Amino acid sequence: MTSTLREPVTLQGRIRTELQKLHDAHLHISPRVLEAPQRARTRILGRDVVNLASNNYLGFADHPFLKERAAQYLQRWGAGAGAVRTIAGTLQIHEDFETQLAAFKHTGSALVLQSGFTTNQGVLGTLLQEGDLVVSDELNHASIIDGLRLAKATKKVYRHKDLTDLRRVLDENPTDGLIMVVTDGVFSMDGDIAPLADIVALAREYGAVTYVDDAHGSGVLGEQGRGTVHHFGLQDAPDVLQIGTLSKAWGVVGGYAAGPADLRDLLINRARPFLFSTGHPPAVVGALSAAIDLVQQEGGFMERLWDNTRFFKAELHRLGFDTFGSETPITPVIFGEAETAFEASRRLLERGVFAVGLGFPTVPKGLARIRNIVTAEHTQDDLERALNAYEAVGREMGVIGG
């Protein structure tokens, strides 16, 4: 018998093959490097640019109040936590901030994890067991998708924001276990808002709990930025879990789970990302505490955010761009194919506007776009400069008439 020999796959060969696939599909990404702080105007490639690419909704990432508190915590508590939270890495400031966050969210407890991504992994992995049913919106964030992959529950998907399809899935999958409906509060690519009141009402018919990832709703919707759950008046609902990030509107880093009083205790004991990751550095905790204080002490952040959002959307529509029905500061401009969106992004940057093109697999094929996010920090001049650049690029590329 003659054996067929082949060359073994090498690490370098695998890396080069996968990179070539990305290049061939025009999907290779090279992140832009900011040469100045994360602000409404920043610097890239030596050029001052209007920044429409960040999630810095309230302008907190470089805010003096947050930096001052971070410096105070750094000097008093040191550079790092020194251990995982369950061994020796829980400082008093960690618990103080979680108490502050729970009070802000109007929940019985809150627990902070290392990121929004790991929060979804930790909470979904802890709560869902074999025999449970979890039903997820088809456009939920990748962190939810990956978190569900680790869970042993039966997993089903319903069409985006389609309550009829959600009911169908619940009807077709009866179970005696826990039933959970999972949705983003604000969807990160399209900027639309989940019909949360209707979802919760339908979930209750089946005895299901509703799990809301509010990464892009926290700091953007609800009184003082308390989020999508508060926007719909569901903050006192015991069957609604509030999950989110601290890296977008709040300007720093981390994720949180806010819910019933016992939820925190269970996650401390079972959530693997919490159990096996070092606690946040004191400076991070200080900046986060300052962010929650600031949004309550000083009005105007959300008003400026939404004034800018309405102006920018209206002007894009006037120029003839398709913003795909966005309802929030996330404002996509549809270009169709990935190469077109990437080229438009490059031309915008040449005109002093930093706005990133997104293609498959981040968004569906044929719906490549530039995702814009205006912030409370943008001025009228910033937005008009960006709109002038959009008009010029859109006409050059035949996306809008003229």
Automatic annotation (TrEMBL):
CDD domains: KBL_like (cd06454). Keywords: Ligase, Pyridoxal phosphate, Transferase. InterPro entries: Aminotrans_II_pyridoxalP_BS, Aminotransferase_I/II_large, AON_synthase_class-II, AONS_Archaea/Firmicutes, PyrdxlP-dep_Trfase, PyrdxlP-dep_Trfase_major, PyrdxlP-dep_Trfase_small. Pfam families: Aminotran_1_2 (PF00155). Its cofactor is pyridoxal 5'-phosphate. Signal peptide: none annotated. One of its GO terms (molecular function) is pyridoxal phosphate binding. Residues 48-389 form the Aminotransferase class I/classII large domain. It comes from the Bacteria. The keyword Transferase applies. SUPFAM superfamilies: PLP-dependent transferases (SSF53383). Belongs to the class-II pyridoxal-phosphate-dependent aminotransferase family. Homodimer. PANTHER family: CLASS II AMINOTRANSFERASE/8-AMINO-7-OXONONANOATE SYNTHASE, LD36009P. This is 2-amino-3-ketobutyrate CoA ligase. It comes from Deinococcus aquiradiocola.
